[in-house]
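Translate sequence into structure tokens.
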Amino acid sequence: MKEWLVTVTEYSVLLIDTIALAIVLFGTLEAFLAGFRAMLTGQATNIQRREVWLRYARTLVAGLTFQLGADIIETSVTTGWEAVARLGAVAVIRTFLNFFLERDLTEIRELQHERAKERMREPTGA
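Result follows.
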């Protein structure tokens, strides 16, 4: 029974890590192409760059979240303390990265929301 659980866990971790890789790869490619396209057209405004960054940050957060889930599952069947410590260190690093990315996203959203409110309050030149 234990061997079956270890096998299922290993395949699950592999699948989840593959999903995380696909998310990060897709997001990186999308951000690169969007940035490159904006650079070629010469119309890269601050808003466009910020939107590219926000989309990319969201995909990184999603990828990190999946990887953290895989780390947690992998830790459940790890037997050596060295492996547990390594997985724990990786999980802590990913958690901090995720935390700071989320914080940056929240700050940018709040800034955009405040700017939108200010634009709505501005009188129109009638």
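Note: The chain has one domain: 2-121.
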